[in-house]
Amino acid sequence: MTAGGHGFDGVERRGLMFVLSSPSGAGKTTLSRLLMERTPGLTMSVSVTTRPMRPGEVEGRDYLFVDKSKFEQMAKRNELLEWATVFDHRYGTPRAPVEAALSTGQDVLFDIDWQGTQQLREKARADVVSVFILPPSAADLEKRLHTRAQDSDAVIRGRMNRATHELSHWAEYDYIVINHDIDEAFAEVQSILKAERLKRERRAGLTTFVRELQRQLQK
Ligand code: 5GP
Asked: What is the CATH number of the domain that holds 70?
């Protein structure tokens, strides 16, 4: 999956798929929001899910909330780029908006779990940059899940249990950020994206750019 857009310096480049994963409560949602607010040229992939909407969530911004039969229909029609079952609910990435964004040279941000990341990597290894966010401690993770106050105690317990399993996939990611401090973690995630955008292999237009430079120098 490649895209032909222009970078901010005018050099043609392929869009990249920037994946953030973490156990729930490690700060990934806040980091995604900050990235979207402060990074030009980035589109958020809005997933479909069968889980119920939480207080404060907005249809179409946080998720597209669908029932199980609609989800299965989308999966069957190959309308999902990847999908997985998390906490007994289905989550998936609609394919069309991702392809549309990449084809206009936008980068796409994904907040998906390790199962989805594996599927994206299988489909488009060269275009996927993955970051795993770790909480500084289990106590910190639990505190954040409680402060968020979006889930019942039973759900929070389930998320803590699942965190152990999710953590076991950390080594499959390109970058690891430990979220001691949200501003620091954001700066780290942002620098990863900035550096990855400059990678030679993604910048298809560099050959032409350098050739033109050489032509000018030889004048
Ligand atoms: P939550 O219910 O807290 O919003 O999300 C639960 C988990 O599902 C998170 O780890 C989140 O990253 C993951 N998730 C959200 N959307 C998708 C998706 O489209 N695909 C996959 N594979 N995981 C997703």
From this structure: 3.40.50.300
pLDDT tens over the chain, length 219 residues: 544 566 667 788 778 999 999 988 888 999 999 999 999 999 999 999 999 999 899 999 999 999 999 999 999 999 999 999 988 899 999 999 999 999 888 999 999 999 999 999 999 999 999 999 999 998 888 888 888 767 788 888 887 888 888 999 999 999 999 999 999 999 999 999 999 999 998 888 999 999 999 999 998
- Under 8 Å between Cβ of 47 and 98: no
pTM score, whole prediction: 0.92
Does 12 contact ligand 1 (Cβ within 6 A)? no
Measured from the CB, is residue 32 less than 6 Å from ligand 1? no
Tally the domains of the chain. 1
Pocket test of ligand 1: the residue of 24, 57, 113 to mutate, having most ligand atoms within 8 Å of its CB, is: 113
How far is Cα 86 from Cα 154, in angstroms, rounded to an integer?
A: 16
Q: Which amino acid is at 50?
A: T
Tokens of 26: 């490690």
Q: Which atom of ligand 1 is nearest to the CA of 63?
A: 16
Q: Which domain holds residue 117?
A: 5-217
